[in-house]
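Researcher: I'd like a candidate sequence for this fold, 276 residues long. If you have to choose between options at a position, lean toward the conservative one.
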C-alpha cells in the first residue's frame, strides 16, 4: 500500500527569483502538485500566465496564499485594500505588521482581515489565475480569534479547498535544507524522511524555493539575518529541480496529491502552528 503526500510550494510572487525557480521546478518534474500565490507580493504578475498554463495541463492546483503580514525588512508585501478600509491590519504607513505573533499587541479585526483576503482572491482572478484552494501565510488564522472559521466559510462560499483540514505531518520533521550540504546528502535526508511515512497515511510537504540572487538575500529581519533564508531556498530549488523526488516517490511508493485529490484530516490548524 502506498502513502500519500500533498506537495506544496508557497510564496509565488514574493520575488522574481522565486517565480523563476517555481516555474523551473514545475517544468522539471511532477513532484509538486500545488502552488500558493501571494496576491499582496511585489511580483505576482510576473510568470502568472505560465503558471496558469501549467495548471491547465492538469499538473497542479493553484491556491491563494492569504497574506496579512510582511516579515522582511527590505521586501514588503502590501495590502490590496486601501489602508483606511483595513485600519486594524496596518500601521500609520499603511504597512502590514511584521509577524502574526505580534497580532496580540494589536489584534486585527476578522471582518477587515476577510475584506483583505477577498480582495486578494479577486486580484488573482483578475490575473486570470484559476484558484482552487486557500491557505494562509504564516497562519494568522491560528492567532486571530474567529479567523479560521471565517476563512472556512469564505472557502465554502467560493468553492475552494480549505487548508484547515490538511496539515498532517510525519512523526519525523521535514528536513531543513540550509545550502551547506551536498545535493546527495539532502536527497539522503529526504529518503530517510520518507521512511517515516506509514502506509495508507496522508501527509503534507511545503517548500519555499527561489534562486540565490540579490533580491532573495534581502529576505532578512531581526530574527533571520545573514542570507540564510536565501541559501535555504536555493537549496530547495536545486533539490526540487534534480529529479530526486520523483525517484524517491517511486522507491518508497509515495503518491503526490493535489488539494482537490486529498482527504480532509480534521481541524489541523493548531497542529500546523506547532510545526512551523
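Model: Candidate sequence:
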Amino acid at each position: 500500500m502506498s502513502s500519500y503526500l500533498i506537495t506544496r510550494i508557497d510564496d509565488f510572487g514574493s520575488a522574481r527569483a522565486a517565480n523563476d525557480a517555481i516555474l523551473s521546478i514545475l517544468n522539471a518534474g511532477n513532484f509538486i502538485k500545488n502552488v500558493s500565490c501571494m496576491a499582496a507580493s511585489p511580483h505576482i504578475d510576473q510568470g502568472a500566465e505560465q503558471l496558469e498554463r501549467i495548471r491547465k495541463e492538469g499538473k497542479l492546483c493553484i491556491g491563494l496564499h492569504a497574506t496579512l503580514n510582511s516579515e522582511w525588512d527590505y521586501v514588503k508585501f502590501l495590502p490590496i485594500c486601501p489602508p483606511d478600509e483595513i485600519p486594524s491590519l496596518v500601521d500609520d504607513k499603511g504597512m502590514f505588521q511584521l509577524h502574526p505573533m505580534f497580532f496580540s499587541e494589536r489584534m486585527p479585526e476578522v471582518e477587515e482581515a476577510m475584506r483583505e483576503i477577498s480582495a486578494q482572491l479577486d486580484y488573482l482572478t483578475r490575473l486570470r489565475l484559476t484558484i482552487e484552494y486557500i491557505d494562509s501565510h504564516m497562519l494568522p488564522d491560528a492567532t486571530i480569534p474567529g479567523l479560521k472559521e471565517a476563512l472556512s466559510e469564505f472557502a465554502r462560499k467560493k468553492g475552494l479547498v480549505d487548508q484547515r483540514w490538511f496539515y498532517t505531518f510525519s512523526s519525523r520533521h521535514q528536513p531543513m535544507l540550509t545550502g551547506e550540504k551536498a545535493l546527495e546528502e539532502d536527497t539522503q535526508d529526504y529518503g530517510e524522511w520518507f521512511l517515516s511515512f506509514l502506509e495508507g497515511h496522508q501527509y503534507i510537504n511545503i517548500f519555499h524555493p527561489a534562486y540565490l540572487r540579490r533580491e532573495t538575500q534581502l529576505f532578512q529581519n531581526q530574527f533571520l539575518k545573514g542570507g540564510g533564508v536565501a541559501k535555504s531556498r536555493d537549496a530547495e530549488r536545486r533539490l526540487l529541480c534534480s529529479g530526486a523526488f520523483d525517484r524517491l516517490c517511486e522507491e518508497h511508493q509515495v503518491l503526490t496529491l493535489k488539494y482537490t485529490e486529498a482527504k480532509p484530516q480534521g481541524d489541523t490548524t493548531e497542529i500546523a502552528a506547532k510545526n512551523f
